Structure formats: C-alpha cells, structure tokens
Amino acid sequence: MKVVKHIYILGFILITSIASAQVKFEAKLSKTTLGINERLRIDFNMNQDGDNFNPPDFSNFNVSGPNQSVSNSWINGVRSYNKTYTYFLTPKSRGTFTIGQAEITIAGTLYKTVPSKVEVTAAVDKPKDPNDPNFIAGENIHLVAEISKTNPYLNEAISVVYKLYVSPTIAVDNWNEIDSPRYNDFWSQTINTQGQKVQNGKYKGKDYRYLVLRKTVLYPQKTGELNIEPLTLNLSMRVPTNRRDIFGGALMTRVSKTVSAGNNTITVKPLPENGKPADFTGAVGDFSFDVSASKQALDASESLQIKVGVKGSGNLKLFKLPKLSLPSSLEVYEPEHAENVKTNSAGMQGDISDSYTVVPQFKGKYPIPSISFSYFDLKTKTYKRLNSDEIIIDVQNGPLNTPATTSENGTANSNKQVVTANNDQFAFIKTKTNFTKVKPEYFFKTTLFWCLLLLPFLAIPIAIVIRNKKATRDADVYGNRIRKSDKLAKKYLSNAKKSLGKKEAFYIALEKALHHYLKAKLHIETNDLSKDKINDFLLNKQVDAQVIKDFEGILESCELARYTPIDIVTMQEDYNKAAKTISLIDKQAR
C-alpha cells in the first residue's frame, strides 16, 4: 500500500510540474469594436520570460507604448510569473483591420500569438470621466458642424461649416484629419478655406477662439432622413494643470485627443407634385432662360450658332437643358455643352448652355420655334415656366428646295437645279511664281567669323581676373565667416517662416537666425552673445534704444516660449517683429 501511495504522490508531482512548465503567450484586446475617436488597449501576456519580442504591424493605428510590467510571486512553494507588453492604439481611419502575430523566443522556442480582427466605426459618444486627463481638454475644445438648413427640398443647396472652438486656456500645437465625412446621398463640393484667420466668438455662452476648417455645399439627391457623417480630427495640445512653476505660472501637460463633429440628420422634402410640368427635368433655384442665334441672315452652306442657355442660381450642374427643335432642311450638329459655374456658401451660381451648329442647305426663311424651360422656384415654392422667342433664319442665297413632281409614267422627277461650270472656280490657285535669284553668302571672313575666332583670346584674361578675385575672396577667412553667418541668418529666418504653427521648431529657428545675424553684423562670436554685450555693441553701432529693446524682447520671447502656450497669431507677430527689427538695425548700424 505504501508503494502505491508513493506512486500517486510521484504522479501528482509530475503532472503539476508539467502543467507549470507549459508556456503561454497570448494577445488580449480591450475591445474588438470601437469608434474612430476611441482608443484600444492590447496586452501581450506570457507566463515565462523570453527574448527578442517582436510586436505586430500597427500601420493602421497611432501607437503609444509599449509599457512593460512584470510580476513574480511564490505561493505555497509554487512560482507564478507573468510579463506583459501593453500598447494603446488610436485608429487612423474606419474599416476592419487585422492585428497580426506577435513573436517571442522562450527557452529557445519561437512562440506566436493568434491574429485578431478589429472593427473601427464612425465616431461614438464617449462617457464623461472627470478623473480622465483628457476630460479638461474635452470640455475646452469642440468641433462643431453648422448646417444652414435642416429641412431642405430635394436639390436645394445647403452648406455645412466645420468650426474648431478652442478655449483661450488651451494651446493647440497641430492637428490632422483622420476621418472625412462621406456624402453618399448628396452632390457635394468643398469650398477652399485656406488663409482663414483665428477669430473670437462664443460657444454655449463662453468665450472661445475658433477657426473655420472646412466649408462644404451639399445638394440632397434623395428624400427623407439623410445622415451627414462627422468630421474627425486628432489634435495635439497643451492643457494647464493645478501645478505652478517657480514664477507662479501654470504648468502645462501635453494631451493628444480625437474630436468629432458628431452625426447630423436632415429631412429632405420632395418637390410638390401639384403643378409639376411634364417637361420638368429637376431644376431648382432662380433662373432666366434664353435662346439666341449668332446671325439671322446668311447664305446657304454658311454656318450659324444657336445657343440655348440658362442663367441664375441653383443646381445648375444637375439638370438637362431643353432640346432644340429645327426644320429638317437645316443640318444640325450635336450641341457643345458649356458651364460657367462658381460655387460658394449659397450654392451654385453662373450659367450653362448648349451651342448648336446649324448649316442651311437651301434658300428660304426657316422659323426656329419657341421652346420652354421649367423650374421649381424656392422663393415662391411653385413651378415656373419660361418660353423663348421665335427666331426666323433668312437664307438669302442658295439653291431652292423645290418639292419633287411625278411624271406621267409614275416616276418622280426631282427637278434638281442644273449645275453650270464656272471657268473661274480654280482662280485662287496660282500658276505662276515670283521666285528671284538669291546671291550665295559665305561664312568665311565674315564679321561673325572673326568674332568667334577672337573670342577665346578675349576670354582668357577675363577668366584670369575672375580666378584672382576668387582666390582673394577664398583667402579672406574672416570675411567668409561673416558672409556665412549672414547666409545662415537668412536661412534660419526662412526656416522659422516655414515652421509657423509648430511652436518649438519656430522659436528654435528664430533664435538661431537672430544669433547668426548678430555674428554677421557685429562681428562677434557666439560666446559673446550676452544681453549686456549685445546692448553695448548695438549702442556703439548707433542703433536706437527702442530697436535694441525690441531685439532683446524677441530673444526673451524665444526663451519663454518653451514654458508658455503660444498660438499661431503670436508666432506671426514675433516673426514680423524680428524681420522689422533686423531691417532697422541694418539701416541704423554704422
């Protein structure tokens, strides 16, 4: 019995050791479905330590991490080990993505996780968490979609203006668009908003700064409830905290946040059926209609242009013009369509036209009958019909279009006009020439010949003079250093202009530009650039005290910009002030 008991104990110990030796390496996702404005957490857990950890490709996400944690404990003589690599992922766009396999080597064996699928949807409403560091940013920055009309008619223009409201306490460093709305049930056109300036305004009764990011004009193509998808941005900003620096100013913490304008729904009304003309093609707006001919008197085989045009404001690109009806004796070509339409916040404005090329074949007078154009007037909410005037085309010279007659035997006589030969029909072809004998010219011993021959001999002394000047310039080490500093100052000032909106890069480039300019202008080295020495040097150069004060103020701004929030307007003012101050020093320095 004792032997059997020992066998049971030995088997239990063996099974326990085998179970504890089993390696586990797996990926755990916090969620498999998330909005584009949410974050995803993924943990790679292992129960034994390993080497050469290789994460999967996160190209569809913005990645934060990895954060590594290790726990090692002994409970009742049994060792428990756990190691975790944690990543936080923010999606770049909507769609279904596969997070591939992670790899690690444990005890000489390569282990891989199982791939996982993640579905990214449109932005969702996130619950408020006062303890979340992003909560302060969320309460002080808002992306709003302002819709001009939520109950339009079919094919009536509406505008959507996206504004970014930022509290004065928040400093936005940069942003990028990560998801654009898809206007599937609309004809849409985006209006250029480049060059827009930051403005002051109110949002929900509070003072904000705001910037118009995008304007879009929409023409609904369906009736009923239509969804306008949100615009989603990822912003990098600095938010004030409760901590203070040694000067009493609030310390800022950097936050990356995704904001969305939210979904919006509009209700599109159908156009009324009562009074709708039979030839209505969908024109909605306020229009005028005209049919005109380029000329009304001409000869046979000459051409004229008949133009059918509509002018006004409305959905000009979304309906067809009425067709022109002409007598069969006029030869008509396919019309050429032309559009001169501009789109602004109120919708399309301009004119469209179809131009018909018409060639009459016979003499006579041909009426161009009146045609009509109907549209729905948004002001009166009724249908209107416009009619063109009748046009008479007078073909003055040409063959007569006589009807065919029937002879006694039943055959048709066309009574065609006899064509008589004209002896002058080829008079435009010249049969005699006016050729004259040309005297041959030779290049040898001409003026150009002698100039080209003597040119190398003249170029040699010029090249010697240029070479000597270059050698003298290269030997001037001090002058070359000054010229180099001057070039660097211009270069960094140019770099500062390119970096407007990126605070750190802008002020670093601006400070370097000022330092290199001083080296070029005052002939001093970098280690001499203290405020007192700068003041003394500029005073010795007879520069005004106010200009010196402005120059020192710009240098102080470059230093303080590292600790205080700066917006793009302040950066532009500092850049203009630096350029103006450098120009004044150039004029005043002696």
TrEMBL record:
TM region positions: 447-466
Whether Disulfide bond counts among this entry's keywords is: no
InterPro entries for the chain: BatD
- The yes or no answer to whether the keyword Transmembrane helix is present is yes
The record, for Pfam families, names: BatD (PF13584)
Give the UniProt keywords, A-Z. Answer: Membrane, Signal, Transmembrane, Transmembrane helix
Signal peptide from the UniProt entry: 1-21
The name this protein carries in UniProt is: BatD family protein
Organism listed in the record: Algibacter miyuki
Upper taxonomic lineage: Bacteria, Pseudomonadati, Bacteroidota, Flavobacteriia, Flavobacteriales
